Amino acid sequence: MVRVLVADDSALMRKTLKAIFASDPEITVVGAARDGEDAVLKARELRPDVITMDVNMPRLDGITALQHIVHEKICPVVMVSSLTQEGAATTFEALELGAFDFVAKPGGTVSCNLHEVAGELIAKVKAAARLGQRPRLKERLASPRRAAPAPVAGTASGGPMKAVAMGISTGGPKVIYEVLPLLPRGLNAAFFLVQHMPPNFTSTYVKRLAEACQLPVVEAEAGMQVVPGTVYVGRGGRHLTLVKNAAGKVVIRLPSTPHHLFVPSVGVMMESVLAVYGKRTVGVMMTGMGSDGADAMVAIRRAGGFTIAESEESAIVWGMPGETVKRGGADLVVPIWDIAREICRAVGSNAQARVAGGGAQ
Q: Which of 16, 47, 253, 286 would suit a FRET pair with 299, their CA atoms being 20 to 30 Å apart?
């Protein structure tokens, strides 16, 4: 049974959150807090498995309360934020301070439509609880190796450019820092990343990533020409796809179709990358719920490309990578902290990823 403490200054939100969690027999709400100060006190008293934390609260805001809870190592925290640009900035600050993940309220600070994200809330609370039960992994991911983004010596391999298609979801906003910042300059490949994330959040996500990475990281824009050594991140609410123009250049398209549970979809992106780059495609599947992209990873492997799936050892949720492995879509299965090194090998560069130690611990 997952014991949850709900923290929100709105009585309506507390009632709604309680009802959502009550719908799942594996979750019980052990308490509710009306502000950040109350949340810290009740967290100390009740020792819940997970806390859902509103960002904007009186007396002590959610960010400050989070800092106390992380410092005291009480339990994982899932932030519940408003679906705005300002909410996105605060949310990513919370993730950098130690929050497990976030869920955006679809209707603002006090949302009457919270039921729309009920499934996401339940799944992320359960995932956070599982991480809390894996102390060695939690400790390792709590302090990701974000080496200073100084250039790393390396010479790009000859031959045609490759394409690295990466998919990630639950837990991704934190653990991606175990991969992207470790990729050096000099790689003869373009990188395409889909992180399941709502609109208004991806631009802030990209900005934070760009500050931490050696490679340029940009939010994909329609008509943007693809060049090697750049990471293109899918925009929330649009699929990330590629097409060759009349001049033979690869450019980005951002369609809203096909209809999919996730927009952007990992599978749609990977299939599009494969259609353009064929056997020069490297597929990478990391933590996430469900199976988005698993069939595309199978297709990449069958077409002669190379595929890497995150192992169950490190995955916060072994859904997407687990389905990839079960369906035969993985050439290689490694923990998250080895993925950057394996991408470098797959791309064929002499550059070395800045992975300290390497391998599982």
A: 253
Residue 292 annotated among the catalytic residues of the structure: yes
Q: Which of 81, 82, 111, 169 is catalytic?
A: 169
Nearest CA-CA partner of 356 in 147, 152, 191: 147
What stretch(es) of the chain map to CATH 3.40.50.2300? 2-133
Class of domain 2-133: alpha beta
At residue 265, what are phi and psi to the nearest 5 degrees? Answer: -105, 135
CATH class of 162-347: alpha beta
Q: For residue 100, which of 137, 61, 59 has the smallest C-alpha distance? A: 137
- Within the chain, which residue ranges are assigned CATH 3.40.50.180? 162-347
- Catalytic one among 35, 38, 292, 338? 292
- For 211-268, how does the pLDDT look when each residue is reduced to its tens digit (9 = 90+)? 999 999 999 999 999 999 999 999 999 999 999 999 999 999 999 999 998 999 999 9
Active-site annotation holder among 82, 101, 196, 314: 196
Whether 38 is a known active-site residue: answer: no
